[in-house]
Specification:
Elements: H1 3-27, H2 33-45, E1 47-49, H3 50-57, H4 61-73, E2 77-80, E3 89-92, H5 94-114, H6 120-138
Antiparallel strand pairs: 1-3, 2-3
Helix pairs in contact: 3-4
Length: 139
């Protein structure tokens, strides 16, 4: 078997168990991975439009709209008035900032657990490699 085949097989074998366990941790906070991805983005970037989020998550805008509607129902995001009324910018609400910090603790513990035995340098190199692969995919 070629190295590239092993590489992508391992990636696929990693993805689902990671996401399944992540969703278990997030369920403690009434969230799923899609919710967390948006909370993470907004916490680290301030505001975003639905189009920006759909590009970030590589999903269609209606998918982001449904996820944002749920986050709005939970009181975690709110509309930011802008210059262009057609553009809907969203940001974390005070409740969203609070839940992000709470969930961040849970996720940090989970990530530390699954990265046990992997050095910071190995993590940095893997991040670089994954970024290059993503860039190649999205060209």
């Amino acid at each position: 078997m070629k190295t590239s085949q092993k590489f992508f097989h391992q990636f696929l074998m990693l993805y689902r168990p990671f996401e399944n366990r992540l969703n278990i941790h997030l369920a403690e906070h009434r969230l799923y991975r899609a919710h967390w991805s948006i909370l993470y983005y907004l916490a680290n970037n301030g505001t975003a439009t639905l189009v920006e989020l759909s590009h970030y998550m590589s999903v269609e805008k209606p998918t982001v709209t449904r996820t944002m509607n749920r986050l709005e129902e939970l009181g975690y995001v709110e509309y930011v008035p802008g210059k262009d009324k057609r553009e809907k910018r969203m940001k974390l609400s005070v409740a969203g900032q609070k839940v992000y910090k709470e969930v961040r603790v849970t996720i940090d513990q989970y990530e530390e657990e699954i990265l046990k035995g992997i050095t910071e340098q190995e993590q940095i190199e893997t991040i670089r490699i994954m970024g290059e692969i993503r860039d190649n995919i999205t060209k």
